[in-house]
Amino acid sequence: AGPPRIFRLRRGLAMLAGEEEEEEEFQRFLRRVDDIASLVQGLNSTDPAVKEKTIAETEKRLHDQETKREKESKTTVNRTVINRRASVRNGFLAILEKDAKERAKRRKINEHLANALKEKGNDAFRKGDYVTAIQRYTEGLEKLKDKQELYTNRAQAYLKMHEYEKAIGDCEWALKCNEKCIKAYFLMGKAHLALKHYSESRQCYEKILQIDPQKESLFKDCMNEINLEEKRIKAEERAMKEVQSGKLAALSIKELLQKLDRPDQNILYYTGGIRLLTEAMKDCTGQTLFRTNNGFSILKDNEIVRRGFCAERKNAAEVDLSVSLLYLWQAVCTGNEENQRLLLTHPDVKAQLPKLLSSGISEIQKETLALISLYSENENGRRLLVGHQDLTKWLQILMTFVNSTDAKASSAMNILSDLTKEEKFKTQCRVMLSAGVLPLFTQLLISAKLVNQAALAHCIGIMGNLCADAVIRMQMAECKECWQACLKLVDECFDVSTPKYQECLFAVLGLMMNLLLEPNVIIQYFAVDVSGRCMSLLGHKDGGIVTRAIGVLSRILPASSLAVEEAVKGGVVKKMIKFLKAGGQTTCNYGIKTLSVCTRSNRQAQEDLVKSDKRFSVLLKLLDSENETIVGNAAFCLGQCLIVPGAATSLLNSNVVMILLKHAGGDATRTLVQKNAAIALGKLCVAEPRHIFQLRKLNGLAILNSSMKYMHSM
């Protein structure tokens, strides 16, 4: 009876275990059903961010399931019992998979339609049809509710329609799609600013900087815009209070503007009224009242004033009117950024400013320059000029004032100097440089004796600064006439010794140094002439001119072996040694570079250096410099000269081995320092083996061995 009972017991336990396993499988299935229900709910969510996240999770699950199926298909499993619950589960999952695939397919189609609608909206936006643009973006969002670009584009259109709350709403939706969307924060900041929500606007722009620290320039511009807008609003509120309180000064500005608004009066009537209005501009409140009472409409609405100001050939009355307007605008715009912006965006002012500068009427030119100076003296003003004026001809126009003998020349050069701080101005200067600017500039250089020399020196310096732009530098460096004019100015310095002319000479040497950064065949052509002029300037009494002449030599000599040969014949090595003994760091930098160029391939220069620098005292001193460029060139010169018989022997009782060893094994940022020092050390020991004893004492044989690779690579 025992075995049957044991058998029945075992069978009962097996059935119980099978039921427990089946129950566990069922519970796992129910949990998956809950997960799937959650996914379905997510797919139907109105929140684009939730929906996007759910789609990604669904696709991941499907991918995992497909991978699992592929693995299972490799193993054949014979089942004798079909689990009905597993069948239901698999059927449900198959339905979900089918639904997800259909959704993915529909999404792909909808994305294509949404992109097409976005492009149609963009096209309408570019044409200024903002209503149609909004409609197309909205239709696109009906196809694809989580497309960030549609929200930000529609927000931009809403901004154009002054529907700021709607723009903010769209930006918020865009940020749900992409929490780091810079465009959304930028447009939201604009909308909040328009609604005078200054704090919220600042927060939006601060977010941009947090997301991308590289947007610092954009951040500064945006914050500046908020500050100016706040300032404008406060000024207008203050001005309104003064009008309401009946202050005489405030009322007089309003009355004067009303009188100027009278049509068909004599031109002298308007000129007198404008002068009275100018006198009434005592403070920021007056400037604000001028703006809020449509003061800038004088030019637009009054045909007599407009005609007189815009006349090509002005009579005396029209000149007085124009000068009066320029006085008024200076009074209205001084220290007032909003007024500056409004004036510069006025179509007639925008068109007339370059014409007034070129008018040839001294008083008009003087006051136009004074007005433009208000803008050029500060960063915001310069940006207004660059943003609202076509400055392609301004370099040429302002440069003509070098011919002026009065203060206009200085004013014009100061404006130019300020404008060169703006990269956009440099870019615009490229347009007319070859055709207009360079012919005028070369003529001014040729006529240096006859023009305003202080202004010319300033002008040459400005052109030198513009050479920081590679395109401008290349155009100037390739201008043969420009080089000829520079040489002529240098030649005439020996006939004209006035301080102002010496300033021109100093400036033109600086210009040539900048142009020599752009090697070309023209420079090679003029190399002998340029180096010859610089050699003649080495005896000049002005130390600054001598230093720049050496600087030009250091950059022109590499362009021509013939120029090197002529310079060496002219005693350049001996002269450089002289300057290196007493010169400052800048002179030493240029001087040792000149020597390194000469000694590189010219045997006479090598021999001259050995003769001029007894026991290499000057070079050894330079090797102790903290300037790595000087050290590198000094080591190079020393290495080149050690081939001269007796040169290495003359250094036997010096500390040259220790110095070169220090640099060869040092950690200078310029690798040429180590290389040149190692090569010099190797050449020293080859030319005079007795230096090896000192090297052994200093445990420097390993560095000497490492120097051999440099020597073999030469």
Automatic annotation (TrEMBL):
InterPro entries: ARM-like (IPR011989), ARM-type_fold (IPR016024), TPR-like_helical_dom_sf (IPR011990), TPR_2 (IPR013105), TPR_rpt (IPR019734), TTC12 (IPR043195)
Keyword terms of this UniProt record: Repeat, TPR repeat
Organism expressing this protein natively: Corythaeola cristata
Gene name in the database record: Ttc12
Pfam families per UniProt: TPR_2 (PF07719)
Protein's name according to its UniProt entry: TTC12 protein
GO CC annotations on file: centrosome; cytoplasm
TPR repeat residues: 182-215
Swiss-Prot/TrEMBL GO biological process terms: axonemal dynein complex assembly; sperm axoneme assembly
Gene3D superfamilies: Leucine-rich Repeat Variant, Tetratricopeptide repeat domain
SUPFAM superfamilies named in the record: ARM repeat, TPR-like
Upper taxonomic lineage: Eukaryota, Metazoa, Chordata, Craniata, Vertebrata
The keyword Repeat belongs to this UniProt entry's keyword annotation: yes
Coiled coil: none
